[in-house]
Amino acid sequence: MATLVQVDDLRKEFGNVRALAGVSFNVEAGEWIAIMGPSGSGKTTLINILGGLDMPTAGQAVVDGVDVARLDEAGLTRFRAQKIGFVFQQFHLVPYLTALENVMLAQYFHSTTDEKEAQHALERVGLGDRVEHLPGALSGGEQQRVAVARALINHPKLILADEPTGNLDEANEETVIQLFQELHHEGHTILMVTHDPSIGNLADRRIEFAHGKLKHILTPAKLA
Amino acid sequence: MFWRLLWKLLRGSGGRLAVAILSLVSCAMVVSALLNLEFDIERKLTQEFRMLGANILVSPRNAQINGSSTAEVMSESEVAAAIAASKEPAVVAAASFLYVVANAGKTPVVVAGTKLEELSKLEPAWRIEGDWKSSHDLAASCLVGRNVARQLQLVVGSPLRLTYLNENAQFTVAGIVDAGGTEDNQVFVGLAEAQNLANLPGKISVAQLSVSGTSNSISRYAARLASALPAYEVRPIRQITEAEGDLLSRIRLLIVSMVILILVLTALCVLGTMAALAMERRQDVGLMKALGGSIGRIVTLFMAEVGVLGAAGGFVGAILGIELSRWMGQRVFGTAISSRWEIFPLTIVLMVAVALAGALPLRLLGKVKPAVIFRGE
Fold first, then answer.
1. B370 chain-A contacts, CB cut-off 8 A
2. What is the CB neighbour count within 10 angstroms for residue B194?
C-alpha cells in the first residue's frame, strides 16, 4: 500500500499552549485510523491541520504528496475541495438547504453540481427518501449520514471524521459506524477522532494522544 | 446552483433581510420621488413664476414705465411681428399696452388699452370679481382695478364713460381686478378702443411678455428680441428671472442634499442589519470554506444576495416614489409631477450601491477561519 499521509515532527502552538508537540506517523492508503486520547490532547488540532483548516507551527503534514504547511490560502481552498472529506461531530449542515442541496454545496465548491450524483450519494447512505428534507426535519443520525454523503461526493483521498458519533444515540451510532465500515471496505482512507474504545477497536490502527504527544500506535495485533 | 443558493440565502434570512429591504424600499421611494421632483422642478417652477406676470418688457427707449405715460409710443405691428418671429423659448403671453390718462366724469383714471384675452394669460394670478371671458367677448367691456371701482363706486355691470381730450367712449364693467399692485388703480379696455380714444391708431406704450424658461434662456431671448427691435428697449425683469434662477438653485441643492443624506442613512441602516447577519453567517461561511469554497466565491454569493435586495428595493421603491412625487406635486404645485422613466434605473442603481456599501460587514466574512469557527470561538 502507498503512504497517503506523512506526519513528521508536527508542532502546533496557540500562544503559550502547545497543542501538538512533535508528532510523527504515517497512514497508508485505505487504512482506517482511530485517533484517541483525552480532551485537549491535540486530536482535533491534528485533524484540522491534515484537513487544511489550520496551519502547523512547525513540521510537515503531507497528504497525497501535498505539504499542507506550504500552501497559501488559495492552495488550501483547492486542497480541501479536492482531497478532503470532512465529517464533524456537530454535523455542520446548512440549515436552510435541503439534504440534497447540502450535498450539492460540496459539489459546487469542488467543480460543478450533478443533482443525480448527489441524490445517489444520499441513497448510498440510506436517505433516498429524505433528499428534500431540511436538516431540522432530520434526526441526528440522518443528519450525520447527510454529512457523510457530502464528505464522499467529491471522491476525496482522505476522510477526516471528528467524533462523528459523539452526538448520536446508540442506534444512530451503530448505523453511522456501519457506514464507515462499508467505506473502509470500499478502500477509503479514514482518520477518525473518537473517545469510544469500541469504535477504536474497529480501526486498522489506533493512535493515542496525551498532552499533544503521540503516546501509542496500537496495531491490530495489540488491539486484539 | 448559484441561483439556487442565492434564493435559499434570501429565504433563509427572511426576518433580518426584511428589515434591510424595508429600509431600501423606503429610501428608494423618497429618493425616486425627490429625483422625479428634481427633474421636473424647472418646468414646474417656470410655470409657477409665469403666474407672476411678465418677465420681459419692450418699451420705447428712455421711456418711464409708470403706467401713465403716453409721451413715447411704439408701433404695435412692428413689435408684434418681432415677437411672432421668435419662437423659442415658448412665449406664454404677449400683451401690448397703450396707456392713456382719461377722465371718468371729473376723476382722472389711468386707462390701459390691451388685448384682454392676452392679459388673462399674462396675469393668471389676478383675482377677478366677474370674469375675464365676458370682457373678451364684448368690445365695449372693461375691467377696473378695485381702487378705481371703490372710488367711482362701480360694480360688475356698471356703465363707465371715459373722456380723453375730445373723444368719448362708453364701457360696461365686466370685472373688478384685485391684482395687489398698481393695476388696482387702472381701467383695462380693449387696445383698439384705447387707441381710438387716444387717437393713436396702431400705437402702443409698452409690450409685456411672459416667457417660459430658465433665467439664462429668458435673458438670451430678450437679447434676440432686442436685436430684432433695435429702436426699442427690450429687457428682462430681473427681479423675477433672477429670483426664479436663485430659487431653482436652492431647491435643487436642497433636494440633492436630502438625497445624499437619505442614501447615507439607509446605508448605515443596512450596515447594522448586515453586521448582525454577518455574525449569524460565520458558521455557514466556516463550513463553506471547509468544503473548499473560495473567499471570492463565497463573498460573491453574499454580495449577489445584497445586490438582489438593493435592486428589488429600488424597483419597488421607485414605483412608490413616482406615486409619492405625483402626490407631492399635487400638494405643492397643484398639478401632478410628470413621471420620468430615467428614475427607475437610476433609483435601482443607487439602491444597489447603497446596499453594497451597507454590506461591508459581509466582506469581512472572507476572513473567517473555519478552524476557529468549529472550535466555537
1. 53
2. 29
For residue A90, the chain B residues in CB contact (below 8 A) are 374
Q: Could you report the per-residue pLDDT of A76-119, keeping only the tens digit for each?
A: 999 999 999 999 888 889 888 999 999 999 999 888 889 999 99
Which residues in chain A have Cβ-Cβ distances shorter than 8 Å to B16? none
Residues of B in contact with A101 (CB under 8 A): 4-5, 8
Q: Which of residues 27 through 56 in chain A touch B, CB cutoff 8 A?
A: 44, 48, 51, 53-54
* CA gap A47, B351 in Å, rounded: 44
Residue A20 in this model has a pLDDT that exceeds 80:
yes
Nearest-by-Cβ selection for A92 from B9, B287, B371: B287
Which tens digit of pLDDT belongs to each residue from B125-145? 788 887 766 656 657 888 999
Q: How far apart are CA A133 and CA A139, in angstroms?
A: 11
Q: A134 at the B interface (CB within 8 A)?
A: no
Which of the four pLDDT bands, split at 50, 70 and 90, describes residue A61?
very high
Residue from B7, B280, B288, B291 whose CB has the most chain A CBs within 10 Å, to mutate: B291
Model confidence, pTM = 0.67
Would you state the pLDDT for residue A9? 93
Residue B99 has pLDDT above 80, yes or no: yes
Closest to A96 (Cβ–Cβ): which among B8, B370, B371? B8
